[in-house]
Design brief:
It contains nine helices and ten strands. A hairpin with a 2-residue loop joins β6 and β7. A three-stranded antiparallel β-sheet has the order 1-9-8. Strands 3-5-4 form a three-stranded antiparallel β-sheet. Strands 2-10 form a two-stranded antiparallel sheet. The two termini are 26 Å apart. α3 packs across α4 and α8 runs antiparallel to α9. The chain has 238 residues and is α+β, with helices and mostly antiparallel strands.
Length: 238
């Protein structure tokens, strides 16, 4: 776990905000939040949106700006923007401006607000009954200034992040399902087959999209295929 995530884990209670709670922050366009970043993790929707904005395929976008690794704890394929140089600069930062400002990753669009799902009573451990499952935090950005006051709701809306985000719930469910499946699979499946499962899952979940077609339907189709594949690999017992 990196320093950023450690800070959140250690201070979660004090960082929590409700949708209509306020926080003070004004972006001064200094670009500091785009430096020393090894933690800009991407969802499939992030890659789709940025690829569409840059008028390129998801495969080409990934090859140019991203990298993939298997999570140490989650054991799932994780994609992040590949930091550049000693400053570990976001590869999409150019002249202190984001090249995909209108389609930036949700983690960047929401900054310095973050979100997560609380645990629920469902079989996969996730609460999936609506927006009350989603919790928000304010993480002191140590950049910008405090000249503006916002509510979380207004902040999300200003960057086009839905309060009732169907994809976020479905993505979180899929991540939990994949993590559980891969951790179990590693105990019973030989390494060469595991490598194949990781490769197919990565390609299907993150890259198998046409930017000429609507995203959510493609994602739901891909998620079902991956879920079924993992069930078959484990003999239907996950």
């Amino acid at each position: 776990m990196n320093r950023y995530l450690n800070n959140i884990a250690d201070n979660l209670v004090s960082m929590k905000l409700g949708l209509d709670d306020t926080f003070k922050f004004h972006c001064t366009m200094c670009g500091e939040c785009c430096l020393n970043r090894e933690d800009i993790l991407l969802s499939s929707r992030d890659i789709y949106n940025m690829s569409k904005e840059m008028k390129t395929s998801t495969e080409e976008f990934f090859k140019k700006y991203c990298e993939v690794y298997v999570g140490e704890d989650s054991r799932i394929p994780i994609v992040r923007l590949k930091p550049k140089g000693i400053a570990k600069k976001c590869p999409l930062l150019k002249n202190q401006k984001c090249r995909v400002h209108n389609a930036k990753p949700v983690i960047c669009a929401m900054f310095p607000v973050g979100r997560y799902l609380i645990a629920g009573e469902s079989g996969d451990g996730l609460c999936i009954n609506g927006q009350n499952c989603v919790q928000y935090i304010f993480n002191n950005p140590r950049c910008g200034d405090c000249s503006e006051t916002h509510t979380v709701r207004e902040w999300l809306e200003s960057f086009g992040v839905p309060v009732n985000d169907e994809y976020f719930l479905e993505w979180s469910w899929l991540v939990a399902k994949m993590s559980k499946s891969f951790r179990k699979a590693e105990k019973i499946i030989e390494q060469s087959i595991m490598e194949r499962l990781w490769t197919v899952t990565f390609a299907k979940i993150y890259l198998d999209y046409s930017t000429e077609e609507e995203f959510l339907f493609q994602f739901e189709t891909n998620a079902r295929e991956v879920s079924n594949m993992l069930d078959r690999a484990l003999g239907g017992v996950v």
